[in-house]
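tool=predict chain=A
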Amino acid sequence: MEQNVSMPEFRPIEKSDRGIFLQAFKNYPPDISEYTFTNLFAWRNYYRFEFGIVSGYILVRAFIRDAFVFLPPIGPGNEGAFLKKVIIETGSPFIRVPEPLALMLKSESGLIVTADPDNSDYLFNVQDLILLAGRKYDGKRNLIHKFKSSYNYEYSSFEGMFPRICLDFADEWCVMKDCEGEEGLKREREAVGEMCDSFNEFSLLGGAIRVSGKIKAIALGERLNHNTLVMHVLKADPSIQGLYQTMFNEFLLREVRSFEYVNMEQDLGIEGLRKAKRSYQPVAMVNKYTIWPPS
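tool=predict ok
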């Protein structure tokens, strides 16, 4: 008879927990975009993230639609057996489960496994997006050329000054996009603010483009695993044609060229976002699933 998992005492994620998560991600490198400490910390209030440690695993849970759900366990091998024990004992599902683990559970456990395409991550080859070679990128190259030929611009990598610049532009972008009138954008602005405030402490990579001396685009990312960077923030003044594409290209060229891949996170089922990300020709999708208790 399988022994039950003794649930840990969960507590909210705090900035002082960064070392715990960094060591875990170093030992067990993640593929899903959710698993950087930056993402967990920045979105902690919205998702009410909590964590506990049990049987050598870090177990993260969130409170979504009035119920607790778990994120995939972080820890030593045989996560499937551990996940199965937790889900049967608690009756709570696991979300954002990477495909290899999900398919193993689907074939072996009797648990209910459902695909979650809206939260699957887009993975791109960095060199492809730096060079933009070939007919499939004609549109991107044309937009970048049009921007560069039309505007006096400067790209800058930011360190000490980035938090203030990042926050100021995030506020300007939200005015342009009416974040106050859209709950998702409002919550994203809060998360971006957390990332900007913690930019130096979290060793993030950041850049910005000035147009005629004024910040008009920002980018923010960090290492996800040994060969992949995950993009946290990519925003540009929507009234300037080609700026978004130029910001992305310059950031990859200046900050990300040592990585093989860039993870552009999910499209959340938003058709415009899906179309934009697909237009960059992903080399793979990091598919995710939800694991439910047996019915």
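The longest strand covers residues 214-225. Residues 121-265 form a domain with the Aminopeptidase fold (CATH 3.40.630.30).
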